[in-house]
Amino acid sequence: MSQKWMDYGSHLYPSVVINDFTFRGTLNPYNIFEAVCASFEHKPHACERWLKKEGIQQQPVESEEGLDSDTLILIVGVLVALNLVLIITYRYFLQKEMKEDRKIQVSSAVSQYVALSNFQ
């Protein structure tokens, strides 16, 4: 019992544990009753009647839409692969351009050297 008390954290803050969920907030009978009613998947008639009397609107349960972990890993993997392809392509064209620039510089240096050697 003391281990659950420590796990739920009710020794730190005033709280109530309802269906393994810790309720922290204003601890009055109305709020606790509302939390108990909210914890049911199918609300009992008493809860529906009380919520209607209090004017509390029930949010319809939305289906969980989003990405599962496999899809997220796939998207991250595709983005990493795309970035690697772009980096490799960039380096290839950069090296090609640098090689052409080096050829031009060497050709220019050789032609200057030849011009100087013919001058003497």
UniProtKB/TrEMBL annotation:
Top-level taxon of origin: Eukaryota
Ranges annotated as spanning the membrane: 72-93
Keyword vocabulary terms for this entry: Membrane, Transmembrane, Transmembrane helix
Keyword set includes Transmembrane: yes
Protein name: Uncharacterized protein
Originating species: Strombidium rassoulzadegani
